[in-house]
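cron nightly-structures :: item 1 of 1
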Amino acid sequence: MSGESITSGAYIKHHLQNMTFGQLPDGTWAMAESAEQAKEMGFWAFNIDSLGWSVFLAAVFFFAFRAVAKNATTGVPSGFQNFVEMIIDFVNDSVRGSFSAKNDLVAPLALTVFAWVFLMNLMDLVPVDWLPMLAGKIGALFGANPHHVFFKVVPSTDPNITFGMALGVFWLMLYYSIKIKGIGGFFGELAFQPFGKAGMPANLVLELVSLISKPISLALRLFGNMYAGETIFILIALMYSGGVAIGLFGGVLQLGWAIFHILIITLQAFIFMTLTIVYLDMAHQEH
């Protein structure tokens, strides 16, 4: 963020604001120039940065794994082929350990979820100023104020992205629950467990809360962890403006947090994948 100096609070808010496109109260469609404008755009606004990066990273995953599959060899494999095979074996072992039914969709879905979430989380390791500053400079070329050009590069810090993925898993849960058990069997589980027919009202409340909490917890767990991690990187970046000594200390903190964060981004991808497998396994089980 070049140009006029800004306060620490404005710097943090700038980095935590999405590039939002939507309809303003006057009926025009435009990019939001503030958090207030983004809020006024309502539900049908689009976070261009989150959508763009998530689609781009999905394409990276697809074409990279497709290239390995097309060029796979039984001879001496390349290093990247070994890496891809290691990931596939890891996902297959997770599916075998957590999914007891038969469904050819689950393993490819688990692989997609793990790789996609990992790549989105991995963007958290890109220095927080690089891409937003580049976006600001590009915006300035088109006459925009750089301080009004917002650009978040970690899609999993956007609850719209995490809830979108969680709702996709939730839809699959409902689909296979009804397909395997039938409508009567599915609603019977909601109405008659765990207290039998006599406890039907309590059963419905408990089971509906349990059912709805699955996508909510799935989305919020990923969003909360990644949002907190990104905020810490932003706070550390503020230390570079505090002089040489504080800046050097900030550099050490940034390196340490980045190393630790590698574990976090991998763990969050693994948890999202594992819960997806477990929820689909529960959808296939008849009680």
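cron nightly-structures :: done
The longest strand covers residues 20-23.
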